[in-house]
Amino acid sequence: xxxxxxxxxxxxxxxxxxxxxxxxxxxxxxKAVTHEEIVxxxxxxxARGLMNHWQSLLQGDKSWIEKYYAIFGVDGKPxxxxxxxxxxxxxxxxxxx
Length: 97
Hints:
The chain is mainly alpha-helical. The protein is built from 6 helices and 2 strands, in the order βαααααβα. Strands 1-2 form a two-stranded antiparallel sheet. The longest helix has 19 residues, at about 35-55.
């Protein structure tokens, strides 16, 4: 997300996000055999989990960041985004480079 200076910052919050996923998010997902099935399962579970537990995040709410900091403390602070990420995502979220 852009910081106050418009620079893109990265948060490592994947474990924080998936920590709320449950059996309902995995319901009906069959054991994967091929790489395509593995990726398909991961996308299905991620989409369900985000829709089931993180609607506010998907709508742009940032209040989750306070809970993230409370759990991860200093390690939860953002770091400067890698140039490749800025080049790919920056224009999509109006980051001033």
